[in-house]
Specification:
The complex is a heterodimer of chains A (631) and B (98). Chain A is an alpha/beta fold and 631 residues long. Helices cover 57% and strands 7% of the residues of chain A. Chain A has 26 helices and nine strands. A six-stranded mixed sheet of chain A has the order 2-3-1-4-5-6, with helices on both faces. Classes of the chains: A alpha/beta (631), B alpha+beta (98). Strand 9 of chain A pairs antiparallel with strand 4 of chain B.
């Protein structure tokens, strides 16, 4: 690493004229948080990404394919946003490991694309010093060139290139301006950076260097964006800020139900029709039973929730990309402080409302290890999208929808909100217990950048949405389908005279009846018990299970699942089941990701046991209390 | 609104402000030093909180904590437990005229 203060002065803009040879095999995209790095990555790779982005902060390294001018494929790695390269946070460690080629499964990049916010150049250039010191061929992209111009700032890119000894281009990831520089850079190998000078790589040194370099490149900082100031006046207003926050949270959930529900219903109609049509094409027999009752009913009953889940991811994505989530973190920080956490946990916890898996990965941005573990441990209490289908189904089956506060807020929305609240309260209590005992920590510095407000980009939102939906469908298509098939087999055999037995005589009934004594006190019968057993793979599997069980049951065959549910559950049992799902950690993926992120089997087992016991006791209490009250 | 801030500032200024947390919303000062854990101080410096730079208390979160500070055109939320460990000095006249 070159860190000498005054290196030899070579006054030339790196030129690739006449250069020959192969293009780079793998290029890392690096940049500080809020530099628009992910937007750029999305613009460059589009649908050719292996792992997309998720709502929350960029913490995984996503890889994508980009073609250079000669149509040769180059693999692009999107690294986590980092302010510096001192291995202090997990994000920075990941970035350093990839750049050094020590990251398992990721080849050492042979070039770097450094994305900096041109409207914040003095600060963002500090990272350039550290990146250039790696000595890899580097392209420096000054992003948000359009905003820089609009706000009256300017910078001389060739002069900056001269200073840094790397090619420099002004680009806008949002509009696509100047993006061609990337393919040009990839098309011909460029020499190692040859900066005029590099600083000693401490913060003060980098800063002085950055200010010097940008001054020499005639950098004029743009005027501060007035829109952001004006919006913050309201969004962070002592009174209105809180009101707006509450309205936003309620609006998010109301959207999911008032827009998502009809969409899901329409989708269900299509799926059911298609299933019937498919069934009629096939001769009566085992194959038809397998396809229609096993495959279609099982997968279809989960797929039906795709519109709602997509909508939730979309709304969280909009909040994240617009910059409002950072303000929400400020507003919630005081509240989070009361349970010993800080506003930074808010973003992962809000993401956990979509899915605990990306949420737990998003906790990497929390520098304090104990805060991070506490956030991981409470994240699965947040009502994730996999609980959504279960809640929706049970509520729709047992609670008629009546308007409460005008047409917008009905009984079902209230029931749903109370379930969200229940999970949230349990998370708060758990955090409180953890942070005042085993995970007590002294200084958890809450330091958070407030990005300017921006219009969310359709492309970024779309890509993320597509990625999440694909992941969900993939889950429906693998785990859930597998479980459905297993259940179908267990409920179809042993065959009696070549026909499936009465459901009471099937293998699955035997299993269910075996565990029934344990769940009877919660108001569940053996069918629900089988549903719960299968839902430990993934929560929404219970619907597929019950769908399959009723699909093969002659008595309830013709009914839709919601009607059939009344055979299995009393209203009290329904409440108990809801409470069970609010508390239990029924998700193999979450267990796996907790194990990986905490790097501790002990925490993983403790969390799973704690949540399961809590679910059992909670359901027990809910069943008996409601039974006492309602009778 | 603005008048309230000013009078509050005057009241508090009987004791000269020595840390970022002593300032009221709308006030400026020059960053001087940190008495924070090295990792936290380093992080702040990477964000642009460098000794010698001017900082403005831009906004307050609910209940006055955390608050949002503007340094070098970017804004950051800091809790009181951090801001009270950041020493400041008043803005020099020639700098203030800038």
């Amino acid at each position: 690493m070159s860190s000498s203060c005054h290196e030899s002065v070579t006054l030339e803009i790196p030129s690739r004229a006449g250069a020959s040879g192969a293009a780079f095999a793998s290029v890392a995209v690096v940049g500080p948080p809020n530099s628009g790095k992910t937007t750029l990555f999305n613009r460059l790779t589009g649908l050719r990404q292996r792992v997309g982005n998720f709502p929350g902060v960029t913490v995984e390294h996503h890889t994508g394919i980009i073609r250079d001018d000669a149509s040769r494929e180059v693999s692009l790695i999107d690294l986590p946003g980092v302010y510096s390269l001192t291995p202090k946070s997990e994000d920075e460690r990941v970035a350093i490991e990839v750049l050094n080629g020590r990251m398992e499964g990721i080849p050492r990049p042979d070039a770097i694309i450094l994305v900096l916010d041109s409207t914040n150049l003095n600060r963002h250039l500090m990272l350039a010093a550290r990146i250039i010191a790696f000595g890899l061929p580097t392209l420096v992209l000054l992003n948000m060139a359009d905003e820089l111009r609009k706000q009256g700032g300017r910078v001389d890119a060739p002069l900056l290139a001269l200073q840094l000894g790397t090619p420099v281009a002004l680009v806008s990831a949002a509009t696509g301006e100047g993006i061609a520089a990337v393919t040009r850079f990839l098309s011909a190998p460029s020499p190692k950076p040859n900066p005029l000078e590099l600083p000693i790589l401490d913060a003060q040194g980098c800063r002085e260097w950055a200010v010097n370099v940008s001054a020499n490149a005639n950098y004029h900082r743009p005027a501060t964006p007035t829109l952001t100031r004006r919006l913050d006046f309201w969004f962070l207003h002592p009174v209105w800020g809180g009101v707006i926050f509450a309205v936003v949270v309620v609006a998010v959930f109301q959207t999911i139900f008032s827009v998502g529900q009809p969409l899901s219903n329409a989708f269900q109609f299509v799926l059911t029709r298609a299933g019937t049509w498919l069934g009629n094409l096939l001769p009566d027999g085992l194959l038809r039973s397998l396809l229609v009752n096993g495959v279609w009913k099982g997968a279809g009953s989960v797929l039906v929730f795709l519109p709602q889940i997509a909508l939730l991811f979309l709304v969280i994505g909009i909040l994240e990309d617009s910059g409002y989530l950072a303000r929400a973190a400020v507003i919630t920080d005081r509240m989070m402080a009361k349970v010993g956490l800080n506003g930074k946990s808010f973003i992962p916890l809000l993401s956990a409302y979509a899915c605990a898996v990306p949420a737990i990965m998003a906790t990497r941005t929390i520098e304090n290890k104990r805060d991070r573990i506490a956030t991981i441990l409470i994240a699965p209490f947040m009502t994730c999208s996999a609980r959504l289908p279960v809640y929706t189904m049970i509520i729709a089956a047992f609670l008629p929808n009546r308007p409460l506060l005008g047409p917008l807020l009905g009984t079902r929305a209230v029931a749903m909100l109370s379930l969200y609240l229940l999970g949230f309260l349990m998370a708060v209590i758990t955090a409180r217990i953890l942070k005042s005992s085993v995970l007590r920590s002294k200084d958890s510095a809450f330091i958070m950048e407030m990005p300017p407000y921006r219009w969310p980009m359709l492309k970024s939102l779309g890509l993320r949405l597509l990625d999440r939906c694909k992941a969900f469908v993939y889950r429906a298509g693998t785990i859930i389908l597998g479980v459905s098939l297993l259940l179908w087999a267990l409920s179809t055999f042993p065959l009696v005279n070549g026909h499936p037995p009465d459901i009471q005589q099937s293998v699955i009934a035997k299993v269910g009846q075996f565990i029934e004594p344990a769940i009877r006190p919660l108001g569940f019968n053996w069918k629900v018990g089988v549903g719960i057993l299968s839902s430990f793979a993934a929560r929404e599997v219970i619907i597929a299970t019950l769908g399959t069980l009723h699909g093969v049951d002659a008595e309830s065959h013709a009914m839709d699942l919601q009607t059939a549910l009344h055979q299995d559950l009393s209203p009290s049992g329904a409440v108990a089941l809801l409470v069970f799902f609010a508390f239990a950690m029924q998700c193999m993926s979450t267990v796996a990701v907790v194990r990986r992120e905490t790097n501790s089997l002990r925490w993983t087992i403790a969390q799973f046991t704690y949540m399961t016991v809590l679910a059992y006791l909670g359901a027990f209490a809910a069943f008996h209390i409601t039974q006492h009250v309602w009778h | 609104m603005v008048f309230n801030f000013k009078s509050a500032a005057r009241r508090r200024h009987r004791r000269p402000a020595s840390s970022l947390a002593d300032l009221v919303v709308g006030e400026r000062a020059v960053l001087q030093s940190f008495t924070l854990a090295p990792a936290v101080a380093e992080h702040l410096m990477n964000l642009g909180f460098l000794p010698g730079l001017e900082v403005l208390v831009a906004r307050s979160g609910p209940g006055g904590d955390p608050r949002i500070y503007r340094v070098d055109g970017a804004e950051f939320a800091l809790r009181r437990e951090v801001s009270r460990r950041i020493a400041i000095r008043p803005v020099q006249l020639e700098q203030a005229a800038d």
